[in-house]
Amino acid sequence: MTRRRRVQRQNFHRDSRVQARDEKSRWDDHVDLNEDDKIALVRAGGMEVEVPFEWEVCPQCDGDGSVVDPNIDAGGLSRRDMRRRGPGFREDYFNGRYDVNCPRCEGRRVVADLDPQNNAQEDVVEVLQETLRREASTDQMRRAERAMGA
Ligand SMILES: [Zn+2]
Known about the structure:
Layout: H1 3-14, H2 16-30, E1 31-34, E2 39-44, E3 47-57, E4 66-68, H3 70-73, H4 79-84, H5 89-94, E5 99-101, E6 110-114, H6 119-147
Antiparallel strand pairs: 1-2, 2-3, 3-6, 4-5
Helix pairs in contact: 2-6
The structure holds zinc ion (ZN).
C-alpha cells in the first residue's frame, strides 16, 4: 500500500459517517425497537430490559436523511481535489449526486433516544453505553493492527 493510500484509508475510518455506520451496527446488536409502542428491548451485560424511547432528529445528517458518500470526500476535499475530479464534479457534489442514505438513521431522519424511567432501565442503559464504548475501542484496535499488517 502506498503512503497516500494508507493516509486515505485512515481518513476514511476516522470519518464520522464511517464511524456512524459501525456504531449503528453495534447498537443494533443490543437494541431492538418496537416502534409502535416506542419501547426498546435493550440487551447488555446479561440483562434484558425494556426501555421507552423518543425519536430525536438524527445528529449525523441533521434530519436530512442523507450524507455525502464518505468514499467521495472522507478527510475533506480541497479546491485542488475538486478541480482534479474534472468539470461537473463540483456541481454534482453540491447537488447531492454523491449522497447516500445516512448511515446512522438509514435515511429515516430520526434516531431513537433511550429514555429510562426507573433504576433497572437506567442500569441497563448505562451498561449498554459502556459495552458500546468497549466494543468501539476493540474494533479500533483490530483496525490498527490490520493497518500495521498484523
Ligand atoms: Zn441521519
